[in-house]
Request: fold
Amino acid sequence: MPLNTNPQAHLGRVEETNAKESDGVHMSWEAILTLSVLVLMLVALVRSWLPPDAAFTGGLVTVVAVGVITPEQAFHGLSNHGLVTVGAMFVVAAGLRETGALHVLVTRLLGV
Reply:
């Protein structure tokens, strides 16, 4: 693809873009909905209306159900091995705590 070396070639497009931007901020319904969901999640977390997992899951389900993102995009972050490892550690820690094995382990290690 050849490069256009004329410095004036794109000037008209820049002026046209700046004119559109100066008309004010126009957001799509997807952006407005996403910002609304984020604000609602933040308020729910700060006021302790919901536990964090319910707030985040509810926000994710909302943007997927309305069609802002696809399910593939929503779960793409789970392909990160680090995230899956941390999630698995939470499951193991909860199991150890619920069975009482964590108390036995801490007692033996710390001698408390």
